[in-house]
Write a structure and sequence with these properties.
The chain is elongated and about 60 Å long. Helices cover about 40% and strands about 10% of the residues. The chain starts with a strand and ends with a helix.
């Protein structure tokens, strides 16, 4: 039986071990899933994996989260993504790629046609990085899931991504939890949801979205027919925001999951949602 999945997470492998494993990937033709999170792998190790990915044709999932990969390592992996045609999932969460690394990955996304899932949480990505990724989303047709949680894209970055969502038709899942944007960013994203026809799951939780942003999202839900999951937990929507969302739920027929945990909606907000539940089926 062929060996297809290997998990070596939390093993203090370091760059030396990563180099050895990468050399093996250059000749291995059966492994499809490789998990290497929390292993002190830095830019050197990432570069080795990049070289392997340029010739490997079997690996579909590579997990490198919680390592020490910076912008140089991201640049190396990006170069591999321009030629690799087998990798469908890449997890670089909890590294330090920054805006420069995000820009390199974005450039790769403009030509790559195999990657469907990219995880970039906790990477010190700001407005510039978000804008680069947004520009890539305007032309990329393969990516279906993008996770940018716990970065610092702000309202400006959220606006850029919203603009891209008006054109992108492949992304089905977008996670922007804890990204320092407020009502302005939420308003832009809501406007995008009014016309986007591919997103089925979004997370805008742990941002500074208040009743204004919630109202905009509610207006989008009145016309959106594809979004099934919306996470807004630990935001600032209050009872007014809950009231707006409740009104939208009276007419929306697509949403199946709504998370408003820790939003101070109070009894008034709860009453509004209760009335919506009487008619939403």
């Amino acid at each position: 039986m062929l060996f297809r999945s290997l998990d070596l997470s939390h093993n203090s492998i370091g760059n030396e071990g990563a180099n050895s494993l990468a050399q093996a990937l250059r000749v291995n033709t059966s492994l499809s899933s490789f998990e290497l999170s929390d292993n002190s792998i830095g830019d050197e190790g990432a570069s080795s994996f990049s070289q392997a990915l340029k010739v490997n044709t079997s690996l579909s999932s590579l997990g490198l989260s919680d390592n020490s990969i910076g912008n140089e390592g991201a640049n190396s992996l990006s170069q591999a993504l321009t030629v690799n045609t087998s990798l469908s999932s890449l997890d670089l969460g909890w590294n330090s790629i920054g805006d420069e690394g995000a820009n390199s990955l974005a450039q790769a996304l403009t030509v790559n046609t195999s990657l469907s899932s990219l995880h970039l949480s906790i990477n010190s990505i700001g407005v510039k990085g978000a804008d680069s990724l947004a520009q890539a989303l305007k032309v990329n047709t393969s990516l279906s899931s993008l996770t940018l949680s716990m970065n610092s894209i702000g309202d400006e970055g959220a606006n850029s991504l919203a603009e891209a969502l008006r054109e992108n038709t492949s992304l089905s899942s977008l996670h922007l939890r804890c990204n320092s944007f407020g009502d302005e960013g939420a308003n832009s994203l809501a406007e995008a949801l009014r016309v986007n026809t591919s997103l089925s799951s979004v997370s805008f939780s742990e941002n500074s979205i208040g009743s204004e942003g919630a109202s905009s999202l509610a207006q989008a839900l009145r016309v959106n027919t594809c979004l099934s999951t919306l996470f807004l937990y630990e935001s600032l929507i209050g009872f007014e925001g809950a009231n707006s969302l409740a009104e939208a739920l009276r007419v929306n027929t697509a949403l199946s999951t709504l998370n408003l945990f820790c939003n101070s909606i109070g009894s008034e907000g709860a009453n509004s949602l209760a009335l919506a539940l009487r008619v939403n089926t």
